[in-house]
Amino acid sequence: MSPAIEARGLTRILPGLVPVTLVEGIDLTVQAGEFIAITGPSGSGKSSLLYLLGLLDKPSSGTVRLQGLATEGLDGDQLADLRLARIGFVFQFHFLLPEFSAAENVAIPMRRLGAMPEKAIRARADELLEGLGLAEHRAKLPEQMSGGQRQRAAIARALANDPALILADEPTGNLDTASAHLVFQTLRGLARDQNRTIIVVTHDTELAATADRRLHLVDGRVVP
Amino acid sequence: MAPLGLAIAMRHLLHRRRQTLTSLVGVSLGVAFFIGIASMMQGFQRDFVNRIIDAAPHITIKDEFRTPPPQPVFAAFPDAAVRLRGIKPKDEVRGLRGARALIDALEQMPGLHLAPTLAGQILLRFGAKDISGNVTGIVPDRERLVTKLERDLIAGSLDSLYTAANGIIIGEGIALKAGIGMDDMVSVIAPSGVLLRMKVVGIFRSGITLMDNYDTYVLMKKAQVLQNRPNVINRIRIRLDDVEQAADLARAIETRFGWRTESWQEQSSNILSIFVIQNAIMYSTVGAIVIVACFGIFNVISTVVFEKTKDIGILKSMGFRDADIRRIFVYEGLIVGIVGMLIGWALGYAIVEFMASLRFNLEGFVRAQGFVLYRTPKHYVLSGAMAIFASTFAAWLPARRASRLNPVDIVRGAA
């Protein structure tokens, strides 16, 4: 069985008068159901690596294979389709659309994919929110919810299209300790109970310690 | 459920009600004014043209040449440097020479009715009032074939010209200016010096101000006496079954016979050229309103794109393509354009009906009781197409910018 994601010699250099190396020579294999934490000091390339793994950014060299599928040579639309169907993102800021309710936000990726009828989409959105303890908040706008609730709604949205891979960039960075713990437990549970692959970028060493594997970056390179 | 892009666009617009409303008002006013102004201006223009076509001959052959005939000496010495001094025009009785043969030739043409006339100027004196005018000598039986003078008579009859000793038909404008009524005797003085006492046997109202204020009609023989030009005609007036043929046929007649031949378009060219200028002003003004409205749309959607940068980033990260993002913002322009168009249509309809309800005396090129309006679906289609095209174009520019945003820059907070 192919790994959930596999990176080989992944390098990203920002071109310019003085080229900046974000990550360099990263080799990484993550199996389905693994929970990986990427740690490191600020500017070490954690988020850059995450965006490369999530096909948001293109590497300067190296390859990324998603569930065995080579992604080099794919155009912007093909990469967007892959993200839509196979990857869920959670960011430090929830990025929920402020004009839409929690349930509507969760429904957006499903409606974009168009694989289900509208009724089933609504039912799944409710089910995802309920699973994350947000059943009574489904009709609320993001501004009517707390920080932790918004971030859990963002996780529900990331799960909408049943992706194999969840990528989270400092998902607890804006939360209080209790909310952060709850969000982290939620992500942990997704890997354990649903066999999803979770890669989390975090500064929080305590939370990172609960991951199956920890990847520490310094200056764009993995250090043991 | 609306398509996703449309739903997002709707929410964006509904959450910026004030700016959206401002853009809508701009588009609606542009559309409404277009309909109102176009209806009014084309109404007058079409009414004028219809009246001209109805009342005046479609083609007039005159006893003139478009360019004066060349002097024989130039033909005799084509390569020489010839200069003539002190040229004096011939002192001759003007008129259409060989008119009989000309009329016979014209009468062979199908779909053509003609009436020979003798036109000139007169001074009409009634009491202490002197009024200058045009006199046209006509043969009533022929005249009714080429103009609607008989239908325009508000008093008297065309045949009275035959029965009255010295009958004259005058325009309503002349009658009102001088206070002349039916059966009044007026003095008619021609430039030839001939003076005739004539009896008013008819008053007409064509609705065309120039005709009503200046034109008079007498029997052909009387006109020839007045102008001291016995057995002479100087105009042949032609009416066509197909008015669209007027310009081509006028050219053909002039080419064949040499006499200056004017179609109704040429005779009314001054006024028709004013209409062209009027239309240019109208379309420029209404176009400017729509352009201003489009700047509003551009502004609103640019602001939305700026405010929604983070949303664009997350939508792209979750798998929206560039075209999906572009579509959202183009939809916003399209929605403003369509809703603005519908409101503008309703407003335009109301403006037209309001103008139609107004009653007042209007005297310009034509005489009317209130606005003369032309109602046509074309105005609605044209204004709607203009609004939708302009709104979509105004939205497309910021939409393109939105679709090109890099999601990595956005989620990093750089965009």
Automatic annotation (TrEMBL), chain A:
What Gene3D superfamilies does the record tag this protein with? P-loop containing nucleotide triphosphate hydrolases (3.40.50.300)
Q: Which residues form the ABC transporter domain?
A: 5-223
**Alphabetized Pfam families for the sequence:** ABC_tran
Give yes or no: UniProt keyword Membrane: yes
A GO molecular-function term, please? ATP binding
Which InterPro entries would you find in this protein's record?
A: AAA+_ATPase, ABC_transporter-like_ATP-bd, ABC_transporter-like_CS, ABC_transpr_LolD-like, MacB-like_ATP-bd, P-loop_NTPase
Indicate the secretion signal residues: none
Query: One Gene Ontology cellular component annotation?
Result: membrane protein complex
UniProt keyword terms in alphabetical order = ATP-binding, Cell inner membrane, Cell membrane, Membrane, Nucleotide-binding, Transport
| Superkingdom of the organism of origin | Bacteria
Q: Which residues form a coiled coil?
A: none
What family does this belong to? Belongs to the ABC transporter superfamily. Macrolide exporter (TC 3.A.1.122) family.
For this entry, the protein name equals ABC transporter ATP-binding protein
Originating species: Magnetospirillum moscoviense
From TrEMBL, chain B:
Annotated TM spans: 21-41, 280-307, 328-352, 380-397
Protein topology in the membrane: Multi-pass membrane protein
Domain of life, per UniProt, equals: Bacteria
Q: Which ranges carry the MacB-like periplasmic core domain?
A: 20-255
Q: Which UniProt keywords apply?
A: Cell membrane, Membrane, Transmembrane, Transmembrane helix
* Gene Ontology biological-process entries: lipoprotein localization to outer membrane
Q: Which GO terms describe its cellular component?
A: plasma membrane protein complex
Q: Quote the PANTHER family the UniProt record gives.
A: LIPOPROTEIN-RELEASING SYSTEM TRANSMEMBRANE PROTEIN LOLE
- The name on file for this protein is ABC transporter
